[in-house]
Write a structure and sequence with these properties.
The chain is of the alpha/beta class and 168 residues long. Helices cover 38% and strands 12% of the residues.
Amino acid sequence: MKVIFLDFDGVMNSYHSELIDPECVGVLSAIIEETGAKVVATSASRYDYLEGKVTYLESEFYRDYIRPLQSYGIKIDGILPCIGKNKEVEIQTYLNEHPDITEYVILDDDYFYFSLLGHEIYIDFESGLSVFDFQTAVDILNGKLFYYDQNKIETDIEKRMQLRKYFK
């Protein structure tokens, strides 16, 4: 099984809009259609729901992201667990609990997945998921990983600049 670990803010919308962007949805739909990947939500907006502070249907997570994506025909097949609000650990746990996952890509506007390098596409939060991210996502989901020399990347800004040369 192929999986897209999907963040929402900054990925399915842009810095300039809080609403789901139809262009971002179109790119995600094309990736899903091309690869047959399932979607697992990683957005931090899921925490209030997972911690029992609100019900699923009352949550910002459902109202602002799940319901609009469903209206575009995109199904969310899973939600990451809440483990210390650490997405890297949460993704690793999800992968360990789902041994049928053969390939995966992480679409996020934050970069902090050191143990998952090669699987992440850093999405520019100013534009959200774009056509420029499509082929890289398809390639990763088809087993063509990208590797980075971690020893040469020292600061967060340098990491982001290093990633941009691969994906933009």
